Structures are given as C-alpha cells and as structure tokens.
Amino acid sequence: MSSGAVLLLVVLSAAAVFFLEKGLRRFWRRRGEYRGRAQLEDALKHILAWQHRAKAATPESLAGALRLSPQAVLELMTHMETAGTIASVTGGVRLTPKGEKRALQVVRAHRLWERHLSDDANMPLGRIHRAAERAEHRLGGEELAELDAHLGHPRHDPHGDPIPTAEGFMVPLDAVSLSEWPAGDYARIVHVEDEPDVIFRQIAAAGLRPGQIVRVLATGGRGVVVSDGESEHRLAPAVAANIQAVPAPAGAMRPAEALRLSRLPRGARAEVIELDEACTGFSRRRLLDLGLTPQTKVEAVLENTFGDPRAFRIRGTVIALRGEQADRIRVRLLPAEPNPEASAS
Question: Between vectors from CA 123 to CA 119 and to CA 124, what angle results, nearest 5°?
Fold first, then answer.
C-alpha cells in the first residue's frame, strides 16, 4: 500500500472517529435534555394533582413520586422556583400561573395521546396510561393541535378525565363516586380513576367504563353492589370510590333494557341503541361507517373458536368485530323471527 493510501486511510479513520464521537455526544446531550424535561414536567403534574385535592405538594411527596433523593428534589425545586413555575407556601409548594399553564399542557398531551391510543390504535384501556406517560413529554404545541383536530376535538380521555384546552382551561369533573351513590338509583359512569393500577384492574375486570349506565343496588360498609343489566358486581369501598357518576339522563336506556353487542348470543337478533359516549374519534367513525347507527338490526352469525373476533350480519353484510369494539355498542334484544317451515308443518 502506498504512503498516500495509508495517509488517506488514517485521515478517513480519524474523521469517522470524530463524527462518531460527535454523534454520541449529541445523542447523550439530547437524552439528558429529554430526561431533564420529563422530570420537570412530572414534577409540575404532581404539584397540579395535589392542588386539585386542595393540598400543597411537599419535598417528600415529590421525592416519592419522582423517585429522587432529597438532595435532587431540593435542586429541582430551586430550579423551578428560579424559573418562576412554583412558589413556596405554608406546608409545601404551589404552582404559579406560569407553572400551572405548563402543567396543564402536559396533562393535555397525556390525555390526547390516551385518546389516540384508544381510538386509533385500539390499545386496551389498561395499557394506555403508561404508554401516554412516555409520549407526553415529546409532543409540542403544533403536534398537539394536529392530534386534537384529527381526533375531532374530544372533551374527555378514555377514562373520562376532562382534556384541557390549548388555552389551558379544564372543565371540572362534576360527579359523585359510586361509594356515595343512593341505593336504588340509576347512574351514568363518567370517570374511572386509572391509578392505583391494582384497583383499576378490578374496575376493568368488572367491565365498568365511562358512558355506561348502572343501577346501584346496595351500599354499606362492605362495599357497593351495582348491576349493569347482565351481571351484578360487588365493589370494595376503595374500588367504588374510584368510579365517578352522574344521574342517568331521562329517557336513557336502563341496564335491564340493553346489553352490549359482545354479549349477543349466536343466532340472536338485536337493534342498535347507541354507541358508548367513550367511543369517539376514529373508532366511532369506523363503527358508524359499518352501519352501526341507532335502529340498525344486527344478528350474531358466527363464533370464533378463540373467542375473538366474532361475526355479525349488519345491513345484509357479514362483518367481524373484536370484543372491545362490540363492547362499545349497546343493543336491544329482538324477539326471534318465526320459522316458516315450522309454521307450515
């Protein structure tokens, strides 16, 4: 190999090392910036959540929520106070108007992304919270505006939490927990708390979700018993407290009068009543495009060996629906059609 070729190889190797090191430095710098931003925004969300409970967040609560050492929390709080996003008050810290506005934008990003994961990606309700926590720090103002428009400007996330507007306004959730609901009354669920996870899994296992109408059968120290028209569910006090509801509107279908399409037996016929209020955006548009509008006749025609999806005849066409899609459609059971052959005999 000539001396010129060797020199060229050395130069190319040095350049490759230089650009590799530069790329790695840029990668680690961006990673550090993202982690710092995520930590700051998580702190703002934590303080906002405590304010909504009429409490002041403390260094100890921040340390527990963010999993930071007392020294790291002190440094973070000093930085936030210098930036004008928090202010010290008796017993802890509160957000300034500047800090509250930024915290609400993070909440907006989280809840819009949950709506996207539920409506567009059909992700199960139990998985969307953690996925949205990872995405909320990466979404900027323009991206949020585009996502909001794509989803049809939803007012609530899949759990029923109100979504803040771009201006930072959030309608308060005016509802009462099922643990305080009068026995015998009908209620429409408007919100289910997604934390702690162990309680949310119990709510999901019972099939209770926003938009659903239930009847409270009994209350007491041992919990709350509710009926969704198909099953009765005994909820522990802590579980019932994590479900908020409002009075069922006049004229709304009561649980005994309706069932979910997913529960329609094979061969049975039904009439569509409505889609759950929690079914919005792309998912709602797709179901409506398939013809699942009020008063449409539906027949369950085919079971799946593995349970999901199932086939239904709608407007003369057989379509397949997953259980989570059919769960969002409430129907009224119709009487069986007379069999002409049986009548002739």
Answer: 115
Q: Give the separation between CA 123 and CA 242, rounded to whole angstroms.
A: 22
Q: Got the DSSP string for 153-206?
A: --SB-TTSPBPPPTTS-------EEGGGSPTT-EEEEEEE---SHHHHHHHHHT
- For residues 170 and 105, give the distance between their C-alpha atoms in angstroms, rounded to a whole number: 10
Q: Do domains 17-95 and 258-333 have the same CATH topology?
A: no
Q: What is the Cα Rg of the chain in Å? A: 27
Tokens 């009548």 sit on residue: 343
> Which of the listed ranges 4-18, 96-110, 167-181 does the model predict with the highest average pLDDT?
96-110
Helix (H) or strand (E) holding 231: none
Cβ contact 75:127 at 8 Å? no
CATH fold of 176-255, please?
SH3 type barrels. (2.30.30)
Mean pLDDT check: name the lowest of 9-23, 79-93, 184-198, 255-269: 9-23
0.85 exceeded by the pTM? no
333, pLDDT greater than 80: yes
pLDDT tier at 109, thresholds 50, 70, 90: very high
CATH number 1.10.10.10 given to 17-95: yes
